[in-house]
Specification:
Elements (H helix, E strand, L loop, with lengths): L16 H9 L13 H10 L6 E7 L4 H6 L1 H5 L7 E6 L6 H10 L3 H4 L14 H7 L4 E6 L3 H5 L6 E5 L2 H14 L4 E6 L1 H8 L5 H24 L5 E5 L6 E2 L6 E2 L5 H4 E9 L5
The chain binds zinc ion.
Length: 276
């Protein structure tokens, strides 16, 4: 546990994603990263692959809270063929998108990486992308144009794909999996977060968006298994934070130190490559 926060009692937080991926793929940690890995993922890899992972696909849908995975569990069950394992994790405070992704990809809490307010300027400190580049790995970030992920990790020698919509992000990512030029692909979608702010976290339109993210993950996962079949590989479904209904205007929002905003669930799987 890296955070002394009662809301997160007993849980690891999203800073553990970076050391876990680095450990599985045998890449050094960013200088400010925690070493607190998610043991369950390492354990599944030991059982299933026993080898270094060479490819990783990380899908980050914005704003999908833990409570959704309970309330709509039948919808999330559809992802089991792609990612049968999951873990309850804590976000970081304040749970706002650029702060969360800065933590997820540096392995550090906001007070350490310094992004404590919701701004989208380039993050200068060392990230997982920097250590991957140093290790000679190829990275693609595929995101909706001008989203946090699209902007805060710029100025690095990696391939940025800024697309107009979630659908275009998905088709670009599938194409990249097919081309097989990258070792780490980050895919970001934002429809659910857009709609929770416009309506509420459980409005019919927001739930359609949530289902779209589930379907997108399944589509990406099928392409991941098809085009990266020969590699030992890791797939992750890693939202940044949850959301609640604001008492002020009755719409969805997030940023508070409460379970609805802070607690999320990450899904994952590792697969052994053919002929390995
Ligand atoms: Zn939001």
């Amino acid at each position: 546990m890296t955070e002394d926060n009662p809301v997160c009692f007993g849980m690891k937080n999203i800073t553990s994603i970076t050391p876990t991926i680095c450990s599985l793929m045998d890449v050094p940690l960013p200088s400010i990263s925690t070493e607190d890995v998610i043991d369950d993922i390492l354990f599944i890899n030991k059982k299933k692959s026993k080898n270094v992972i060479t490819k990783c696909l990380l899908y980050a849908p914005d704003g999908i809270g833990y409570f959704l995975t309970i309330r709509y569990k039948d919808q999330f069950k559809k992802m089991a063929a792609i990612a049968p394992y999951s873990i309850r994790l804590c976000s970081v405070y304040p749970p706002k998108t650029p702060i969360c992704f800065a933590s997820m990809f540096t392995g550090a809490l906001p007070k350490i990486h310094g992004r404590e307010r919701s701004e989208r300027t380039v993050l200068k400190c060392e990230t997982i992308f920097d250590t991957f580049i140093k290790a000679g790995k190829k990275i693609a970030i595929v995101a909706v144009r001008s989203s946090s992920i699209d902007l805060i990790f710029r100025e690095r020698k990696l391939d940025y794909f800024s697309e107009e919509t979630d659908e275009k992000v998905t088709s670009r990512a599938v194409e990249l999996l097919k081309q097989d030029q990258h070792d780490l692909i980050i895919v970001y979608h934002q429809e659910y977060d857009d709609l929770l702010h416009e309506t509420t976290p459980v409005s019919p339109r927001a739930i359609i968006a949530m289902n779209n993210h589930i379907e997108s993950f399944i589509e990406l996962g099928n392409a991941f298994n098809k085009f990266w079949k020969k590699y030992n590989r890791l797939i992750l479904f890693t939202p940044d934070h949850g959301a609640h209904i604001s008492r002020e205007d009755g719409r969805g929002t997030h940023g508070n130190n409460i379970p609805e905003d802070m607690v999320i669930r990450h899904y994952y799987n590792v697969e052994k490559g053919e002929n390995k």
